[in-house]
Fold this sequence. Notes:
This protein has a five-stranded parallel β-sheet with strand order 5-4-1-6-7. It starts with 11 loop residues before the first strand and ends with a helix. The chain has five helices and seven strands; from the N terminus they run βββαβαβαβαβα. Helix content is 31%, strand content 15%. The model is unreliable at 1-6 (pLDDT under 50). The protein is of the alpha/beta class. Helix 1 (54-64) packs parallel to helix 5.
Amino acid sequence: MVLGGSRPGQGVNVYFDIDGVLNLYGPDPLSQTPDDQDLWSSYRSQSMMLTYSPEMIARINEILAIPGVTPFWLTTWEREAAWFGSQVGLTGAEEWQWLPAVGMTPSGQWQKFASIRSHLKVARPQLAIWFDDDLAIQSEARAWTDRVGAVHAHAPDPRIGLRPSEVDRMEELIRSQTSSR
């Protein structure tokens, strides 16, 4: 079962990368400014691979429970993303569909970009939200999201991952779409 599944033309799809978004690079958040207040109050490291904020995961779980919201994995972890989700406590993450994300397509396009474009043509949600730190260097993908308009793409700082303000913005966008039905 995928949480919040909706018919084409309805609902909100949220696409998550893992590394640099939910799982930050390094054992602690590394902000450019020492007085940065837009951080979670705590981070947890598990093994050498996982560093995340339990608060962030709890907030994301609350937001993804809003009716009409469907989460997807769009990460190079691909089918291993379910393991990550279960380790950090993302509700139902083992059931989230994952989209192909490794490397480039045969035509030379970033695979994540090709996958989300193809998926959105079929799923046709009212709104899509895409979190991927690599969007910072993928100008073609960013330009496409600007042209499409119904896709909000955001590139978190990979040394920090999603910030509280970014999760708040995700909730605002979702509530603006789901409360209008």
